[in-house]
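Still learning. Any example?
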Amino acid sequence: MVPVPLVTFDRHELGGSRKIGFDSPPWLQTGSPDCSFDFSGRMLELISDISQTCPEFFKLDPNKILVTITRARNIRLHGLQARVTPMRFEGGNIQCKRGNRNYEVQQYYVDGREIYYLVTFCLPRFQDQTLENKLVTVFHELYHISPEFNGDLRRHQGRCAWHTHSKKSYDVQMLHMAREYVSTTRKPYLHDFLRVDFAQLIHKHGGIHGSVVPLPRLVPTSRAAKVS
């Protein structure tokens, strides 16, 4: 089994600039300063806690989610923050017919477990948002996952299938969920890393690493389409 590739951000990403408040507050639990910060691992722990705390996400199986990171193309705070990539077609179907051909989604496995979703965060842009914005982004992406957790996305009625009629209203709903989670979780230390920015994490840990995989491809197949 080929291990999931990793990418590492280190102090070279920061240049020579320093700023007031550069050090991470010592009371925040982000892990040992002797080790590079494992963004994918820590984010997956957070997602696991959300799935155990918030009723809307009780069906999420963190063992079938792969958290990955990607490098922002520029230093602007606005732009892609995160995305969720489904590994199956509508309704959780393994195959989809387009024209005269059947297609399957390229599958990923981690320790023998099939991955149903990739959840990707864009660094350093995501980590440099406010705590509230980061939490809204996390909940925004998780809520895109089908409530059946079948490898498909959540589909709303009407033309606006992904964000209902208003992305702003969608994010307001996510904000309420995020605030409820923060007030009820028994493991508040799991989102301590969201209370600091990219430079503070780098400064404390010397680096940030995470999983990186290419987006899955559509693979033509000669097998007959089978509905799951």
